[in-house]
Amino acid sequence: MTHAHHAAIESFWVSAALILAALVYLRGWLLVRKLEADGAKVRHAGSFLAGLFLVWLAIASPLAALDHELLTAHMVQHLLLMTIAPPLILLGAPAKPLLYGLGQPVAQIIARPFRAQRFQRLWSALMNPAVCWVGAAGTLVIWHIPSVFMLGLRSEYWHGVEQISFLAAGLLFWWPVVQPSPSSLKWPELSILLYLFLATLPCDVLSGFLVFCDRVVYPAYFSSPRIFQFSALEDQQCAGALMWTCVTIVFLIAGTIFTARLLSPRFSEEPSILPSEARSIAVPRTAGQSMGAV
Description:
The chain is built from eleven helices and two strands, in the order αααααααααααββ. The protein is mainly α. Strands 1-2 form a two-stranded antiparallel sheet. Helix 3 crosses helix 9 (156-178), helix 7 (129-143) packs antiparallel against helix 9 (156-178) and helix 10 (191-212) packs antiparallel against helix 11 (232-263). The longest helix has 33 residues, at 3-35.
């Protein structure tokens, strides 16, 4: 099977999965909006759907077909999956709409593990900002090691693992920033500004290396077709500059918004659905019946 054929099949299934996720979310969002006055806002739905669209853009759009030909396109994928799409998805407050959208039987199965104390302790440890930071930084660094990066280019399986790990690491990283709450954030809220600043350091080192290195780091791009008349080295420099610029702007915006929220006299945390709260999640049995606790 050629790379193009495999990419077309992958694009179909990814598109179908994302459309299904969007439909489930919208069904649940409409139910929450109907049953709870402040439970679902239009901006939540818009943010979640925008995040899903960016995931599609990175994995299943024509952009994905260029990742084996241009390092810049590959870098755009990484930025979309790890830096831009995850905060939008989390800003959509997806837990409750997705549970409502799935319906009570499925929601009960999904929520059941959250009731176990062992799982709650594991989740609490996983959501520690230090763990989130190390997980995201480690994912970024490991996948840009030349031998590991080339493995993702040569193997469709490992390329898929790479994309999933970037999205998962992005969701993990942005969780303390987008959904700070007593049950998920153990550090002072002001520490999130330091958290964001420190997160720029691995990106700065990697992007600076790509920009100022005088040789092509990933040899596969030597033999790729020259698109837009870029040489392999110019493509690498463009990818590094794009990473440097995008990460700086996104983290600066996030830091500014977070600071504004902290300084606002009306600052209050939006309710988030976390494992320790899963026992209180309610889903409708039917459209005409009252709520039942999961």
